[in-house]
Amino acid sequence: MDKKKFLNSPNITDLIKTIMNKLCSEEVFKSDSKLLLKKYESSMKKINFILVDGLGSKNIENLDNILTQNQTDEIVSTFPSSTSVALGSVNLGSDPIENGLIGYYHFDKSENKLINTLNWRGSENYLQDKKFFSNQKTIWNILNEKNIVFNVIQPKNLIDTSLSKHLYRGANQIGYESLDELGEIFTLPNILDNQFNFLYYPVIDVAAHVYGTNSEEWLIEVKKFSEFLSEITKSDEGRYTCLTADHGVINVDDENRHKIIYDDSVKIYGDQRSVYINGDMKKIKNIFKNIPGHFLEKQEIESLIGLPNDDERNNFFPEHVFLLDDGHIIFPNHLSANLRGYHGGLSPKEVAIPLIEIVS
Prior knowledge:
alpha/beta, Alkaline Phosphatase, subunit A, Gyrase A, domain 2, 7-stranded mixed beta sheet, 17 strands
C-alpha cells in the first residue's frame, strides 16, 4: 500500500479509541480520527467487539457472506501488520511506539536478548518486570474505573500466557476450545446482558498460515465463522456488533522465501516482511544485497513507526528497517517454519482490514 495512503487512513487504534469513547459516553481517549461507525447509535447500550485474526478485507472481498454484506468501511492495521503489535494497540488503546510492542520479535539491547512477543518463551516475566510495560493502563482498567460490565473471550490455551497476562490486566477472561463451545458461551445471561464483550478468534489466521488464503481449508473456516456470527447476532437483540481483523495475509511462493546468512554482530528482529536490524550498515547491506526490497529512510521510519523519545524505547528501537517487496519473506536465524501465508508488511492484502457493523 502507498505509504501516504496508509498513514492517512483510519487505523485499528483509532477504532478501539472510538469504541471506548462510545462505550463510556465520554472522551476517554483523545482522537482526531475521521473514523465513523455508520450503524452505531447512541441509544445502543450493548456492544460486541470481535477481532478475527488474519481476516483482511482484501482476503474476503470476493466472498458473499455476512462479513462482506455488512462491511461499512475499510481501515488499516498497525505497522508492522503483526498480531502482537495489533493486539497491543487494541488492548492498550495506543500506537505501537507508545506501548512498546513494535514487532513479532522484540530485541532488548541492554540484555542482548531476542524475544518472541507472542509466546515470550524464556522471558515469561519480562512484561511484568519491566516498569515501562507494567505501568501502562489497559482499556480493561479504564472500563473497571467506569463501572462498565464486560468480558474478554478468547481461546483457553491463551488465557495464562505472558502476553495475555499483560494485555488483559483488569479483565475477566472466558476461555473456549471450539466454535461450538463459543456458540454456547454467547447464549449465557452474563454475556447477553452485559454492556461489552470482546472476542478474539484466531482460527482463520491459522488456516491462512498453513494452507494459504482462499484455499479450501481457509474457505471452510471462514464459512464456519460466518455461520457462527449469523447465529449470535440473531439471538442478541439490541446489540451493536463491530468486527475487524488484526491484519490480512499474503500467500508466498517457495521461490520468494529467502534464507539470510549473518553472524551475531548483526541483530535481526521484527517481522519477516518488515525487518528490524541493528549492526554495521556495510555488513547489513551485504547481507540483504540479493533480497527484493529496500531500506527505509529515517523519515519513513518516523512516519511508519515513530521515533524513540526515551531510554526505554531506544532500548528496543531498531537502527535500520528493511521492507521486503510484495510476495517475499526472509528467514532469519531464529525462524524456519515453512508456511504458505505470511504478514507483517505494507501490502494492501496485509494492512487493509474490514470494518464490519451488525445491529441485532
